[in-house]
Amino acid sequence: MILSQRQLEEIAASTTKDFNRFFFGDEADKPDRSALPTPIDQFAKNYLGLRVSFARLSPDGSICGVTAYADTEYKITELGITRTLALKRNQVILDESFILSGNVQRLCAKRRFTLAHECAHQILFQLESEEVKASCEMRYSARTVYTPRELKTREDWNEWQANVLGAAILLPQKEVDLAMRRFAETPLINYEGRYSYGDHLTLRLFCRLFGVSKTTASIRLRQLGYMVDRPFSEYVDPLEVW
């Protein structure tokens, strides 16, 4: 199933609207409310019914998360030793680096995006036809052992869609609209990675509110028209003295 960006936005909007009513109750329908960042852990566990756990997924940390649509197994080879771990239906496994001492806060934004990405895979799977679902479930046979990289490669066709949908779940357009109405009167200007003091502060507040990285925030704000790009040559440093 190939979906356009607009279709993915519509899926994210309807899904997060339903979740917000489920999680926030009457607060979600108040006309004068503030932005409601998506609590992605509760979205995954309480709304989608996914089981989230942590394990070492690769020797070099290159695999951040995996999920599957039927019970299967995956193997990891490290220092000549191969481990086989179970991956159950409706389970998401995130790399254990996210919860190691000193990493919880530092990698919080990355963990949240990874979980949103895996949630998006599960949502997209549920939208498939019964025939496609059956085919996917057969491929993820419990008799077959995959490496985490093979599990991800099997979904390469869907990775772009999962990235777009995951970002729209973490940063729903309605919530971004509400936040930017509060934070900025005009679009932020990105001078090839440099910002005015005011725009830099706005971007930091936005990232803190939604629990996302500067990169994720910039991509999403640009998509929704809240950030424009200018060449660095146009940047004027207010502290520079001539």
UniProtKB/TrEMBL annotation:
InterPro entries: Rad_response_metalloprotease. It comes from the Bacteria. Gene3D superfamilies: 1.10.10.2910. PANTHER family: ANTITOXIN HIGA1, BLL0069 PROTEIN. This is Uncharacterized protein.
